[in-house]
Amino acid sequence: MRITGTGHASLRIDTPAGSILCDPWVNPAYFASWFPFPDNSQLDWEALGDCDYLYVSHLHRDHFDAEHLRRFVSKKATVLLPEFPTSEMRDELEALGFTRFLETKTNQVHELDGGLKVMIQALTSPTDGPIGDSSLWVEYDGVRVLNQNDARPTDLTTFHALGHVHAHLLQFSGAIWYPMVYELPEAAKRAFGKQKRDRQFDRTFRYIDDLKASNVIPIAGPPCFLDDELWQFNDIFGDEGNIFPDQWVFQQEYAKVGGTNSTVLLPGSVMELTADSAETTHPTDVEEFFAHKREHLEEMRERKRPVIEAAKASWRHPEVDVLAEMKRRIEPLLDESVYLAKGVGGPVRFDLVGYDGESVESIVVDFPGKEVRHYDDEKVRYRFRTERALIEHLLFIEEVDWVNSLFLSCRFSAARIGQYNEFVYSFFKCLSEERLQYAEGWFAEQKPDAEDIKLGDWVVQRRCPHLKADLTRFGIVDGKTLTCQLHGWKFDLPSGRCLTSVGHELRSRPAGTPAPGADPDAGTSGVAPMGGEPVEAAAGGE
C-alpha cells in the first residue's frame, strides 16, 4: 500500500485494487482565513485527482473544497459516502458532477473490487463537524490503515477488532476559534490556550495508545493564517498558548511520552507501507523545512495576498438589508426550535461594524422571544463583533452554517458571561429546516445513562453527559473535579454541575454513600441537582 501526503488532512491511498483520494483541500477556506500548510497548491493535482474512489470525511471547508473537487477530481471516481443523517454531502457532490456513490453503512466493512476493503464510521451528533464527521478504515492484502482525521470517536474498539492497524492518521492540532477571539486579558487568553494545547496532545496520545498502530502520522492541521489581520495566530512566536502547533512540534511532544513511531508527511511525501515496514521518501528534508517555517509562511503570504484581497472585495453586499434578512431567515427557525432555543436561554447579540470601521449596528437574536430585532440595551450572555460585510455575504449566499464560515474564520471577537454554551453554536450551525429538525430530534432523544462506575473516591455515571464518552477511559478525577479528556469538559463532583457548559449535569456521589432516595443495596442512582450560578469554566468547551 502506498500513502501519498497531499497536505493538511488530504492523502491518496494506492493499492493494486484501486486508489482512494481523501479530503483534498487546496483553496483558502472560511473567508480566506485558513490556508493549507505546508503549501500543496503546486502538486500535480491532475494526476492525483485521477482516482478510483473519493472519500470526503465531512463538510468542513478544509476537507470539502468544492472548487478543487470540481476542477481536479475525476467524476468517474466512486464516492465513498458516510452514513450521515442528512443528504447534504451527496447533494453538494452531485452538484459538482459526481454520479457514482457507494452509500456505506457505519461500522460495516464493504469489500470493493479486487479485494480492497473499506469501513467508514460516521459520527452523527449535531456537534460532530457540520452535522457529521467520520473516519475511514482501509485494508488491502492484510495491510490496514485508519484515517481518523478530525473525528473524535468515543473509542477505537471497532477498528481494533478488525485486526492490527499499520498506519494511524489523526488530528493533533487546534481547529477552532477558542480562546483567541475572546475579549480576555492576554495572560488569561494565554493560560486558556496552553490548557487547550496540552489537552489536544493528551487526547491524541490517548487515541494512539488505544489503537497501538505500527505507524502514526499526524495530519489535519494546523492551518496557516496569511492575512495580516490574522498573522498572529501562526505558531511562530514562541507562544505556549498557541493552539496551532505544527507536525514537527507534534514529533517533539510525542517523543516526550516515548513515541518513536511517527512520520510527518509533507505534500508529496510517499510512504510505502507493508505489514512489516514503512519506508518514506520526502520532497525535501522535513526537519530543515520546519526549521525555516517562518520564511516559508512569509513567502506564502506575499504570494497569496492577491487571493485574499480578491476574496475581501467579494464580501460587501450593501443592497442586503441585514436586519430584514436575518428576520426572514432566522425567525421561522426560532419558532420551530424547542431544545436549542431553550438551551441558549437568552438573547445573543451581533455587533456589526460598518464599512467605515467605526459605525456599529447591534442586532439581537432573541431566543426566548423568538425574534430578531435591534438591540435594546438588555443584558446578553453572548456577544459577537464582526464586520457587517461578512454577515451580508452569509445572507447573500444563503449560508446555512455560520459556524463553518464566520466562526471558524476567526474574523470576529466574542464575549460571554458565564459558561460556554454549546447550544449557541449548534443553532448557528443549523440555519436550514433539514439541519434544525435533525438537531432538535437528536437532543430530544438523549436519555440519561443508567450505569454507574467508580472513579477514585466518587461514583459517577459511566457515560459523559456531553457526547457519551466512556468515563472509565476518558475520565480523570482531580480532587472534586472530573475532567472528560475526550473534549476537556469538566464537572463539579459534589453538585454534578457542568463547569464547561450550560446544562449537561453529571450524576455523581461520594463512594460508599447510597444514591439519593435509593435503597443502598439496589445499585441505582439519582440525578445530582444543578447548583450555583454559572461560572467561567477552567477551560472553554470550544
TrEMBL record:
Record keyword Iron-sulfur present: yes
Region (Disordered): 507-542
Keyword hit for Transit peptide: no
Cross-referenced InterPro entries: RibonucZ/Hydroxyglut_hydro, Rieske_2Fe-2S, Rieske_2Fe-2S_sf, SCP2_Rv3818
Pfam families on file: Rieske, SCP2_Rv3818
Record's keyword terms, sorted: 2Fe-2S, Iron, Iron-sulfur, Metal-binding
Superkingdom assignment: Bacteria
Biased composition (Low complexity): 510-542
Record domain Rieske: where: 459-499
Protein name: MBL fold metallo-hydrolase
